[in-house]
């Protein structure tokens, strides 16, 4: 039995055996060797890259915070910490001075609570637009300062509102600026410090939130009780304090995405490449002979302008990260433990313990104070655990979140005042470690340029599913069973968050490796380009794809070179059409990468791939039935925009190639025969003139004579330079036209080699329909 | 679009903010003497206060006590509390109309509350539902004078709560 050729190294050998592998390419090609190099480079670099990302496998040997911060120093964490500290002010002002505001402005408490919810919605609405704004360019520092200024001014202006509408407008401004603390601050903080200091830095940042929660009530009490001033003066004073924080933060700088992590990995890849290949020209890789790699991106990554991911593509990419998906419940728990928890805790303290505004404010300050040493201790402990294994840190945080559940139940049910305080202190302390741990993991499992988006999405989940969902739960339970019982019920979703946190750790390292692999591979490609080595036009690497829970592609490698004709064969349900969907962008893989002309297009939208020159003719007559033949062709040319001449040339070429279509140009497409419909579908290639044409099931259900005509046309399209990937169930049809064949079975590539060699693989052919064809041909 | 939204927001803020007539310093012209803040009470409840610097009279200024409801806005008339049928009736809203809506108007320094509104869910408690009374000054035209308001919170057992 011949060995299976599933792995790239073996695929390489078969590829080398091709007699005429590159009819349209002048440069010598060694794709198999290139793929081997990429795989070896990836594996060689993974351990080193993990260390660069702060995962050394050992808890010891951690540098001190000061040493880790290096030349950056404490300034970024202090500046951002001050901004997030003062961001707590307005929530505290509304929570504590709400009754006075309501009496002054003559608005009900219910309306005031509605304004609070509206502010939460504004925060939600602002997070992702802010992420989109900072996506291109080093805008995070400026955005953080500008939103801080907007917040400070809004807080000060609140002192002058005369009616509901003024308060509403200022809360909207405040909410929009607060969105920056969710999407911009964490990513800027992470990119300002090296990985070995990040858990500690994020913990310090979270401690600043707690300090804000302590300072705000104290300032409010000083202003309103001790100094006998009104809520207006409190807003003015706290607004001025906020303004001072903004002035301190004015020197914040954005050093770029991944400057201290993925850029280091890139440098390492280049260094290794320099030592292993003395023939390296020393080219920086930002240009090449084809121009496919156009410039260095903000994070130092080589990006082609046409393949740079847009906002929604990045969001899709983030949502495909398994760890991120698993952390949704944990982020919702973070949201529940903020505004809804404190609102109902205030109700509970009022109703159960008869605590007035001053008592509640003191209580809030006290439990926030307890959280400061907890989060600082976690910074050191969590850093060590993350260094050893991020999963261990996640499990610790999962267990810590479990403590919140216990603390909630004890706090609510205890008849002893001191025990009640201890219960809620446990909740506050344990909740404080959630955010730094979650940010650390969330921002580590996505590429650096996607960090604002990941943080923004997390903030959206926390504010939406957490804060709004939590309020709905609390209000529906609280109205019927009392505020205490409502708080106890909140323990259920938090317990779910604890469980998912505990479990998410198993996937975290794999997702970080995914980021590493992407960076290494991109850099390896840049190095290969700088060495003027040929790269395949299309390279699908380690592709995995699932429809929901059903995985259909497993570690698939698939390459196509310029002008090549490749057949993709296999049984029904083997994953052939799914692989085409991954190439054309109709499906996004859960793992792996798709490179086209050296550029990563894995998560690029299908329509943008069309512009790059990838066209798919789906199986099952890819036509618009209710339209005429001519209109079908015009629709195919939609992406050409206003280039009417090109469209007309394409339509003329189609009618010249298929005179039968010309005769029926005004007929509805549904009235055409099966063969004519397939001809019409092929017309897409004449109009769009793609570099890569993916054809799914060309011959299905057609007469041999028609199939012959279609195949002749496929050859003609190929002769113009278009590479063809033909998904076929008929071996004799496939072998009559292609140079190279892949055979798929159960989502895996089982054969990759010269097409005639497939006939020598009875182990593959026996079990499937191809056996008969093989005999016939043999 | 963004410019338009910015302009609208700016216009809203300019129209909704003021620099005159705002209280930045708390005043204590009224001292509520009973009930004590957060005390447990029984109905009928007498709310009393002292206001030595205010010379109240039926022609104004006089006091309005709002129980479990927000007071009218500064400068706004008590007529804002009346529905359309009341507004079309001469003499309405009068003292009894307002009292039915838990607003007690007096030129003395006490009012007697016979019934309390049903509390909102979040204010219900086994130690007595939390209620709130807010006193503001009203001028001769029935309009609220200034921003200052004086509040007392108290707890009342559920049995005594009116509709």
Give structural notes.
The complex is a heterodimer of chains A (778) and B (163). Chain A has 2 domains: 71-260 and 310-514, MFS general substrate transporter like domains (Growth Hormone, Chain: A, Up-down Bundle); 547-777, P-loop containing nucleotide triphosphate hydrolases (Rossmann fold), CATH 3.40.50.300. With 778 residues, chain A is α/β, with parallel strands linked by helices. In chain A, α2 (31-52) packs across α11, α2 (31-52) packs across α21 (491-530) and α4 runs parallel beside α6 (140-157). The model of chain A is unreliable at 1-29 and 278-302 (pLDDT under 50). The longest helix of chain A has 40 residues, at 491-530. Chain A has 31 helices and 12 strands. In chain A, β3 (538-547) and β4 (550-560) form a beta hairpin. With 163 residues, chain B is an alpha+beta fold. Chain B has a single domain (27-160), classed as Immunoglobulin-like (Sandwich), CATH 2.60.40. Helices cover 15% and strands 27% of the residues of chain B. Chain B has helices at residues 2-16, 84-87, 95-100; strands at 31-34, 39-41, 45-50, 62-67, 103-106, 110-113, 129-138, 150-156. Chain B has a 5-stranded mixed sheet. Chain B has a 3-stranded antiparallel sheet with strand order 1-3-6, with no helix packed on it. The longest helix of chain B has 15 residues, at 2-16. Chain B starts with a helix and ends in a 7-residue tail after the last strand. The model of chain B has no long low-confidence stretch (mean pLDDT 86).
């Amino acid at each position: 039995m011949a060995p299976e050729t599933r792995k790239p190294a073996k695929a390489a050998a078969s590829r080398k055996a091709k007699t005429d592998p590159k009819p349209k390419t002048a440069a010598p090609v060694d794709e198999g060797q290139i793929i081997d190099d990429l795989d070896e480079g990836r594996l060689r670099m993974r351990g080193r890259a993990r260390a660069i990302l702060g995962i050394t496998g050992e808890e010891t040997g951690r540098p001190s915070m000061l040493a880790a911060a290096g030349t950056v120093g404490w300034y970024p964490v202090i500046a951002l910490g001050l901004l997030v500290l003062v961001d707590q002010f307005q929530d505290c002002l509304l929570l504590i001075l709400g009754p006075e505001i309501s009496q002054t402005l003559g608005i009900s408490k219910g309306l005031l609570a509605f304004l609070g919810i509206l502010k939460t919605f504004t925060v939600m609405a602002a997070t992702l637009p802010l992420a989109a704004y900072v996506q291109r360019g080093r805008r995070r520092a400026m955005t953080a300062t500008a939103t801080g200024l907007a917040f400070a001014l809004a807080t000060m202006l609140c002192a002058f509102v005369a009616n509901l509408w003024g308060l509403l407008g200022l809360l909207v401004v405040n909410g929009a600026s607060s969105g920056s603390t969710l999407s911009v601050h964490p990513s800027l903080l992470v990119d300002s410090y090296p990985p070995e200091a990040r858990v500690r830095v994020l913990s310090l940042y979270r401690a600043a939130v707690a300090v804000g929660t302590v300072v705000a009530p104290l300032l409010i009490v000083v202003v309103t009780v001790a100094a006998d001033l009104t809520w207006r003066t409190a807003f003015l004073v706290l607004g001025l304090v906020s303004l001072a924080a903004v002035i301190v933060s004015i020197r914040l700088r954005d050093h770029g995405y991944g400057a201290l992590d993925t850029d280091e990995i890139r440098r390492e890849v280049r260094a290794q490449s320099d030592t292993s290949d003395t023939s390296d020209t020393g080219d920086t890789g930002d240009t090449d002979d084809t121009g496919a790699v156009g410039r260095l991106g903000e994070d130092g990554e080589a990006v082609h302008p046409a393949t740079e991911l847009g906002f929604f593509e990045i969001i899709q990419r983030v949502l495909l990260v398994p760890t991120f998906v698993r952390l949704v419940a944990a982020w919702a728990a973070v949201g529940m433990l903020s505004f809804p928890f404190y609102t109902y805790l205030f109700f509970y303290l009022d109703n159960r313990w008869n605590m007035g505004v001053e008592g509640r404010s003191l209580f809030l300050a006290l439990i926030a104070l307890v959280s400061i040493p907890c989060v600082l201790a976690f910074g050191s402990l969590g850093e060590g655990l993350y260094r050893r294994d991020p999963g261990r840190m996640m499990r610790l945080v999962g267990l810590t979140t479990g403590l919140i559940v216990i603390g909630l139940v004890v706090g609510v049910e205890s008849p002893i005042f001191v025990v009640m305080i201890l219960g809620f202190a446990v909740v506050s302390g344990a909740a404080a470690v959630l955010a730094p741990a979650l940010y650390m993991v969330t921002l580590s499992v996505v590429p650096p340029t996607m960090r604002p988006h990941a943080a923004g999405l997390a903030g959206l989940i926390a504010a939406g599913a957490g804060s709004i969902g939590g309020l709905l739960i609390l209000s529906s339970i609280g109205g019927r069973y009392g505020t205490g019982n409502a708080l106890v019920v909140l323990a259920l979703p938090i317990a779910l968050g604890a469980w998912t946190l505990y479990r998410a750790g198993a996937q975290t390292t794999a997702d970080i490796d995914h980021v590493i692999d992407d960076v290494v591979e991109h850099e390896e490609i840049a190095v290969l380009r700088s060495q003027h080595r040929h790269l395949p036009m299309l390279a699908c690497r380690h592709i995995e794809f699932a429809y929901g829970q059903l995985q259909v592609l497993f570690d698939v490698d698939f390459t196509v070179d310029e002008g090549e004709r490749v057949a993709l064969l296999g049984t029904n349900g083997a994953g052939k059409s799914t692989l085409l969907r991954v190439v054309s962008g109709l499906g996004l893989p859960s793992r792996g990468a798709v490179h086209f002309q050296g550029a990563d297009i894995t998560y690029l939208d299908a329509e943008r791939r069309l512009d790059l020159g990838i066209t798919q003719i789906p199986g099952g007559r890819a036509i618009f039935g209710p339209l005429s033949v001519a209109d079908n062709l015009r629709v195919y040319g939609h992406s050409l925009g206003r280039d009417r001449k090109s469209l007309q040339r394409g339509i003329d070429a189609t009618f010249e190639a298929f005179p039968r279509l010309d005769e029926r140009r005004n007929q509805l497409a549904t009235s055409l025969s099966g063969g004519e419909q397939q001809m019409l579908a092929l017309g897409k290639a004449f109009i769009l003139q793609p570099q890569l044409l993916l054809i799914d099931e060309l011959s299905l259900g057609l007469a041999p004579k028609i199939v012959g005509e279609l195949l002749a046309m496929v050859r003609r399209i190929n002769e113009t330079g278009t590479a063809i990937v033909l998904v076929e169930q008929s071996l004799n049809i496939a072998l009559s036209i292609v140079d190279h064949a892949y055979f798929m079975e159960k989502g895996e590539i089982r054969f990759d080699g010269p097409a005639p060699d497939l006939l020598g693989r009875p182990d593959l052919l026996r079990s499937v329909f191809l056996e008969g064809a093989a005999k016939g041909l043999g | 679009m963004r410019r338009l939204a910015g302009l609208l927001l700016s216009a809203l803020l300019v129209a909704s903010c003021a620099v005159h007539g705002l209280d930045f310093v708390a005043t204590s012209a009224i001292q509520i003497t009973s009930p004590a803040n957060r005390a447990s009470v029984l109905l009928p409840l007498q709310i009393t206060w002292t206001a030595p610097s205010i010379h109240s009279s039926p022609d104004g200024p006089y006091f309005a006590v709002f129980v479990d409801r927000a007071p009218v806005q500064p400068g706004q008339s008590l007529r804002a509390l009346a529905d359309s049928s009341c507004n079309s009736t001469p003499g309405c809203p009068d003292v009894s109309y307002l009292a039915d809506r838990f607003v007690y108007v007096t030129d003395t320094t006490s009012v007697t509350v016979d019934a309390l509104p049903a509390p909102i869910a979040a204010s219900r408690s086994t130690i007595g539902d939390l209620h709130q009374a807010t006193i503001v000054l009203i001028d001769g035209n029935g309009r609220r004078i200034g921003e200052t308001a004086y509040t007392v919170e108290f707890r009342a057992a559920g049995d005594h709560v009116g509709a």
